[in-house]
Input
Amino acid sequence: MYNSIAPAIRVKIAILNNKLRSIKKHSTFKIIFVSLSAFTFLAGIFMCSYKLFSMLGSIQGVGIVLVTRILFLFFFSLLCMLIFSNIIVSYSTIYSSEEVEFLFTTPLSHGEVFKSRFIESLILSSWTFIFLLIPFMSAYGIVKGLPAYFYITLIFFFVPFLFISAAIGVSATILLIRFIPGKYFRAIFISLFILMVAYFILSFRLPRVIRPQNLEDIFMLGKFAPYFKFSQSPLLPSWWVTQGILSFNSGSIKDTVFFWLLLFTTAIVAVRFSTLLARCYYFSGWALLYKSSQSEKFDFVSIFVNKMQILWGFLRPGIRSLVTKDIKVFWRDPIQWSQFIVFFGLLAVYFASIHNLSYDILPPMWRNLVAFLNLGSTALTLASLCVRFVFPLFSLEGKRFWILGLAPIKLSTIILEKFSLWAIISLLITMPLIILSNTMLNVSGLIMVVSCIAVFLMCFSLVGLSVGLGAIFPNFKDDNPAAIVSGFGGTLAFVLSLLYVCLVISLIAVPFHLHFVLKIISRAVFIKQLLLSGFIIVIISLLSSGIPMALAIKRLKRMEF
Amino acid sequence: MIRIEKLTKKFNNFIAVDNLSLEIKRGEFFAFLGPNAAGKTTTIKMLTGLIKPTSGRAYIGGYDIQDDYIEARSLISYIPDFPFLYEKLTAKEFVEFIGELYGIERKKLEKEYSMYFELLGLTGYKNHLIEDFSHGMKQKLIFTAAFIHDPKVIIIDEPMVGLDPHSARAVKDILKAKLKKGVTIFVSTHTLSFAEELADRIAIIDKGRLVAEGTFDTLSRISGIKGKLEDVFLRITEEENRTDIKDV
Output
């Protein structure tokens, strides 16, 4: 009997090879643009990390402590994100992928099918984080003046760390699928996630009785202290990685090897444990999932959306049915809704951290900076939400597009429907976000009004940009939204959204900086400048959504089905 | 070669397959017919081990598909109605992958797939990515992949969908040749002329229950109709309250 996962791995290498070769088919402009964007992204992370390490390192006394704590926090956050990423990716890779059904018809054992899918899940879940790790740790290494072999040591630490995270995430998925009935899966997943986020938020809250006296203390206590009890538990693999790096840094080879061995052996045990779990529950879990997809079940989405239809009941029947279809399809796709939920979890953690910032006692320059950083964070959240969830909408119609193409509705209606639906969803998410965060920061009334108007405009322009570019650069070959976003169109949408956000924030921030921080312009001039900025922002917003949408509608009219 | 014993599959309260028993001999062409949602695909998935029966057992070449699934599956080739293919592989890479999975020696594999590519008109496309293939081309590729490892049992769900007349003829000829070599073929199809032409025995399933089984002559006798399989099938699966065409 021929039993091996080698062919399944070789076939993945062949697929990767073909994908790389197919890059040649794209125009040189596209290749250069995507490469430059990736490089800029890496360089941006490097520069920010370099500045952070240099700034903290230069603070006398607590500087070294702060750098160390940043490392603990970084690897702890990485561990959390990797585990979540593995839970989500392993669901689609190990369970719901069509490939699994195919592999189960071959003479591979269930264990071998699991192993081949585990490796793929690990790679898919982890590769983006490697792009985060490389510039971050390079900045650390350069600031600390560490030798070249530090980076090789880092690889040795990071590989078992990835395996541990994957094994934890995949084991959680195996148990969830096997023991949580399919019809309750979404509800339980969301409830567990909300509970976990709530636990994090409550744990991060700093007692407001602590009133830090200077900027260093604010950094020390307000920003970082609440995270310590999580990130500095010696039972965490992230703690072992950080300790290993610190031991290497201090020249203690014995400790470095100890922590590496700790990681390595834990990785072996963790992977072995997930394999054992898979042996017991993988196939039966997969069969349960299949059974649940075959049987009629309590459909919360259907009931909820049908009840909510009253909200868009005033629309024409064609548009109304498009809206209903889009909402139902979105919430029935586990990849979409699970990432949407995780996205909200990250927002909640963001709130938890700004709650701890003592904005009201900051000096004017810092107050201005923090207020606009908050506006920037909200705008970037909106931009990433649009690129991740709105840009792929048109492509996801995919092979089904002929249905809409033949329907008695104008093609421009399809574009406008997606634009309106997501503009409203974005408003519902970001307006409370900016109002809440500004309230928590206790910003002035003027900043509150200005940032609310800016976010309101940005909702329409960023959604318009993503909807338009999504239709101009569709990808009908992929069904995975993450894969659709990673192409040329998605990259372009992200870069343009980023530029737009930077431009809008700069246009607002400059008059504030000149008046409140530098105090070189009078109130009258400040108001004039602010109004002028507002006028320019309205024009830019109209153009940035109008042009892509108009081009998209033009393209749709030429489209053949 | 295939033995199905009292196979039942329930999805909650819905009975997809109800107490089905069949025995199919070596070298037999067995057509498995039924209206939509009759339980054909569920039966096939239980037969390939993709889903577990609620009760009952299925054996391939004497191996229990649930307990000895690796041995059983190495005897089977399964061609689903909507086959999964690795879109980013070329046709050649795909069949090489299948060959490796089934442990076929390299030279033999190359000889085998070259022959089937030639027969099915895929030779000129062997280095093309599968994502560029039409449905029919993909169907021909999955047939090639099914034939190369010399299976003892071929299970096909809707074999003729998307095939052009030349390819359909080539597939039929290959299947006939396989039958002569003692391969057992289990086909679920709505193309009744195909079943009528090739099947040694026919089973008709409706609402999960086996309603008729035997040679074409036996089924004609049961239905009381002398004519085409289509008429026989329609009579056997006739519904009492069928809407009259005049109402449409």
